[in-house]
Specification:
Strand order of the largest sheet: 1-2-3-4
Mean pLDDT: 75
Order of helices and strands: HEEEEEE
Radius of gyration: 27 Å
Strand content: 35-45%
Low-confidence stretches: none
Helix content: 25-40%
Number of strands: 6
Distance between the termini: 83 Å
Length: about 130
């Protein structure tokens, strides 16, 4: 084997290993950026309202088309017989559309939670 062919093989081997390394590096960088974006999206969803998230569900139109999402957050006791909640309505792209607060009865010995949501015309019915 001549010196010229050995040099060519060495250069080709170094170039392919460098290319392989660059592919791994670029792929890892892309995965890192996309995971950081996903984590920030999740953090934004948890920071939409004060309190602890107790209910989150999609909202469907009567024709089963996705309308958006609703999240209900527990803000704590208002008084002995009522708890204060905050609702947040998101569109299909998880952008906040509206929010508000409401009071619900608080029971001392009965555990009650939100279990379903129905969209009736332009109103939402949240059931316990």
């Amino acid at each position: 084997m001549s010196l010229n062919s050995i040099v060519k093989k060495t250069i080709f081997a170094n170039a392919t290993s460098t290319l392989h390394f660059m592919k791994k590096y670029i792929l890892g960088f892309i995965v890192l950026l996309s995971s950081l974006k996903a984590v920030s999206q999740i953090n934004d969803l948890f920071q939409l309202a004060q309190g602890s998230l107790v209910f989150f569900t999609p909202i469907f139109e009567p024709d089963d088309k996705l309308y958006g999402y609703i999240g209900v957050y527990d803000l704590g006791k208002e008084n002995e017989s009522q708890k204060r909640y905050e609702y947040v309505i998101l569109d299909t792209r998880l952008v906040k559309v509206t929010n508000g607060e409401f009071l619900a009865p608080s029971y001392k010995k009965i555990y009650s939670r939100f279990v379903s949501l129905q969209k009736l015309d332009n109103k939402l019915l949240l059931s316990r």
